[in-house]
Structure formats: structure tokens, C-alpha cells
């Protein structure tokens, strides 16, 4: 596997939540830098050393509601 993709959203409680697409990996972090460390740790824990992806892609999804 070359890469794994995480969909990232801002948490209602503050910080960020990340979920891997196609895998049962979910994590969170209080800051963007904290989230990146947590995602790396989650990937290391989920995959065996020879099966780990070489790249991690984070896709930040931001939703905003405005009046017209």
C-alpha cells in the first residue's frame, strides 16, 4: 500500500477528528500538529511493519453555514 487517506473534520468540542477511508482507524487531536502525531501513531499501531503505507494524506473537510 502506497498511501492511506484520512478525512479530517473540526470537532464540535474543539480540535480535530480523523477517520481513514477504507480502514477502521479513527483518532483525534487538540491541535493540527497533535492530530498529525496521533494519525502517525494510529497507522503504526494498525499495520504491521511491512504492510504500512509510505504516505499519509489528510483531507480537511470544513463545513460552514451562512445566511443568504
In short:
The chain has 68 residues and is α+β, with helices and mostly antiparallel strands. It has 1 helix and 4 strands, in the order E-E-E-H-E. 22% of the residues lie in helices and 35% in strands.
Structural class by secondary-structure content: alpha+beta
Output the strand order for the largest sheet.
3-2-1-4
Helix and strand string, N-terminal first? EEEHE
N- to C-terminal separation? 44 Å
Low-confidence stretches: none
What characteristic shape results from the CA principal axes? Answer: elongated
Helix content: 10-25%
Mean pLDDT rating: 96
Please give the radius of gyration in angstroms. Answer: 13 Å
Could you explain the architecture of this structure?
This protein is of the alpha+beta class and 68 residues long. Helices cover 22% and strands 35% of the residues. The protein is built from 1 helix and 4 strands, in the order βββαβ. The protein has one helix at 32-46; strands at 3-10, 16-20, 26-29, 55-61. A hairpin with a 5-residue loop joins strand 2 and strand 3 (26-29). The chain is elongated. The protein starts with a strand and ends in a 7-residue tail after the last strand. 13% of the residues are buried.
Amino acid at each position: 500500500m502506497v498511501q492511506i487517506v484520512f478525512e479530517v473534520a473540526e470537532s464540535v468540542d474543539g480540535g480535530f477528528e480523523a477517520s481513514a477511508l477504507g480502514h477502521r482507524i479513527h483518532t483525534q487531536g487538540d491541535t493540527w500538529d497533535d492530530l498529525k502525531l496521533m494519525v502517525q501513531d494510529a497507522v503504526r499501531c494498525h499495520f504491521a511493519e511491512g504492510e504500512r503505507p509510505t504516505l499519509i494524506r489528510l483531507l480537511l473537510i470544513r463545513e460552514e453555514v451562512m445566511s443568504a
